[in-house]
Amino acid sequence: MGLFGNRSSQLGQQGNRRGLKIWPIILFGLYFGYYYFSHSNSASFTGRKQLLDTSAQEEAALGLQSYQEILQQSQVIRSGKLPEEVQGIAQRLVEAAPKVEKYLADATGTPANTDWSAYQWQVSVIQSDQVNAFCLPGGKIAVYTGIIPVAKNDDGLAVVMGHEIAHALLRHGGERMAQQKLVQIGSIAASMSTGDMDPQQRQMVMAAIGAGAQYGVILPFSRSHESEADKVGLLLAAAACYDPREAPRLWERMAALGNQKPPEFMSTHPAEGTRINQLNEWMPEAMQVRQQFCGTTPAAP
Q1: Strands in 190-271 per DSSP E
Q2: Residue of 164, 175, 226, 272 with catalytic role
Q3: Which of 28, 216, 255, 274 has its CA 20 to 30 A from that of 13?
Q4: DSSP H or E run through 49
């Protein structure tokens, strides 16, 4: 083949590489629509729409597996005053959960649809400097000793544990798995769609798509989960007859720790100031819940 023939072939290949394939994007859009309508559920406690493609029982099995692995690698405090206190707080919060669900169902028309059989509650205290606690799907709770000085008292610890229990009751773990599945499929569709682009241009487009997914979907999604758990956890603590007013004070103490954090839009969690403002907005309802289920108003701090 002559020189001009080779050159024409090369130009044709370069021209093809600049194209953007539309069909993978169309297929992903169709799949997203199918997935959304076939896996959309009403969240317990709040009634908002959430995407789930796992059952509460399946999530609980995954939670138990992770919990056992964490405990095997941790120093668990199995006896003494602290585990007894933590167990007592957890029991009160768990007993309050159906009351809060019914209260919200009556107040907002939210369906009371929690599958309580999926929750086999277990509580462990882990010796660690981590200022943390968690509750995995199925009700597997862990409290790290590093959170105890920050919680300061039973009311503060109830707020922390109520927040974590709310994550499990709201099935945030299952919802994140569904979201990650969609993000992965979307990434595959984007990769196929840009496959014929110039490599440098393709890299820039994929980086932009990745940043858009991270800052426009994943992180805001995570922050909304945290705020939702803050509110439901606050109501759990109030219905369990703890003082919900300790919640904003807890986050003031968390902010005082001075740990360096990224800007809120780059974080999985709302900033402490945002959480304090939200908790104060929800406080009248929390005090009403405490009055309804406990019959008394806590003394002024």
Answers
A1: none
A2: 164
A3: 28
A4: strand 49-51
Q: Is residue 209 part of a domain?
A: yes
Using an 8 Å Cβ cutoff, are 223 and 267 in contact? yes
Residue 202's alpha-carbon distances to 18, 23, 216, in angstroms, are 9, 17, 20
For residue 6, being part of any structural domain is answered with: no
Cα distance between residue 239 and residue 233, in whole Å? 10
User: Which range of residues forms the domain containing residue 209?
Assistant: 38-294
* Residue 215 predicted with pLDDT over 90: no
What is the rounded distance in angstroms from the CA atom of residue 175 to the CA atom of residue 169?
Answer: 12
Residue 57 is part of a domain; what is its CATH number? 3.40.390
pLDDT at 13 > cutoff 90? no
Q: How many separate domains does the chain show?
A: 1
Say which amino acid occupies 64.
L
Amino acid present at 242 = Y
Active site residue 285: no
**Are the C-beta atoms of residues 273 and 254 closer than 8 Å to each other?**
no
Residues 242/286, Cβ–Cβ less than 8 Å: no
**190 within a domain of the structure (yes/no):** yes
Tokens representing 199 are 């490599």
| pTM confidence score | 0.83
Length, in residues, of the chain: 301
Classify the phi-psi angles of 74: left when phi > 0, otherwise alpha if psi is within -120 to 50, otherwise beta: beta
- Does residue 5 lie within any of the structural domains? no
The first and second tokens of residue 147, run together, are 């959170």
pLDDT tens-digit series, residues 86-101 = 999 999 999 999 999 9
